[in-house]
Fold:
Amino acid sequence: MLNLDMFRPVRGMKDLYGADLAKYNYIIQKAIKVSTKYGYKQINTPVVEYTEVFQRSIGSETDVVSKEMYTFIDKGGESITLRPEGTAGVIRAIVSENLTQKLPLKLMYYGEMFRYDRPQKGRYRQFRQLGFEHIGDKGPYVDALTIAMASEILNSIGSFDFKILVNTLGDEETRENYTKAIVKFFSRHENELSEESKARLKKNPLRILDSKDSGDKEICSMAPMITDYLSKESGKYFEEVCRLLNNFGLNYEIDSFLVRGLDYYSHVAFELKSTANNYKDSLGGGGRYDKLLNMFGGPDVSGVGFAFGIERLILTLENANFFGEPKKTAVIPVSDEENDDALNLLKLLHNCDINAEFICSGNLNKKMKIANKLDCELALIIGENERKDGTIMVKFMNSSADNPKSKSVNYNQIVQFVKNNLHS
Ligand code: HAM
Structure:
């Protein structure tokens, strides 16, 4: 018996086409436009990497590595992983492609990422990210400019409210002192922690702060804050970033518990969240990483970056009723005799940036049905009479079947007529 379930997309993954695909492309184009202004160039790395690339950089105790990676042994016996994020692959590429000669680099990428997470609205097993990495420059102005660019990208794609949350994870000295403080704190609450957090207390205590367990979350809300353990240098660095963000006029909040779910961050970490519908998941996030390049055998230089989840941006825009279907026209020859004239009209409309489809299969009745299916707002019909008179018969597709509205329009006036009557 055929198992038809096997012919659906895998759980948490979806086919993309039509208007949905257009939304992706729209967002990507906007992001390319803004990031190009800031000097970013595109990079495209493979969707699979050796497992070690992610394990070492993201950290084996993180949720992403310990629970969510699609890892398998290939036919050559190598352990490979579908990328759960883009930063590790980009940094690996900078080293293996010898791009370190060209530092500082500003690179942007977009594409599919894979995490074996519990699928729900805004959380998928295959999703798309738009990512940005600025490598080889360190200074508060670089961090602040990166956050400013993230904010500018959101403003460029549509009009919706979002908030910027920032924190610092300080330098190594900061994290050592802070780790000691939270180990002391969580040890006092060890019996109340989830089994997973108990294990993390021994292996990577900072990751307890990412726990999704409600009991853990309650304990975490009472934990010491990293901002109280900042080394002098880290404190100064963070203050300067905040001063610059103020100078840029950016509205941000300091969230002292923001530690991000990946191990590679130091100093500034940030997330952008949509306030529409109290949407709880992040639209994007990132921060500075000091050790990544070195970890892959590159020089000891620092980077800063962030990534947006494209599906989450789309959901936010949809919540704000941003996307309307693009309005279009159908160009319909009554018979094959009028095909050439109809094609000329199509060309004229396209040259004037009007969306128009040429419909030429079947009789007139069938053509009108197709125009309806394609959601065309106007049908421009050319028959023998129209050819003789130099006119076009315009049908308003939204008028009811009992009351079809149509108008004969002079060919010379058709472009203006369509522009006036096609609602954008
Ligand atoms: P991340 O916070 O793990 O950071 O992911 C960035 C964004 O990807 C999230 O804010 C969210 O919008 C989206 N995302 C993550 N998981 C899912 C999912 N399961 N379904 C849908 N969207 C999701 C990173 O990945 C870092 N590489 C960002 C970065 C770049 N840091 C420095 N440079």
In short: Residues 85-87, 115, 117, 123-124, 127, 129, 131, 133, 261-262, 282-287, 305-309, 311-312 surround histidyl-adenosine monophosphate (CB under 6 Å).
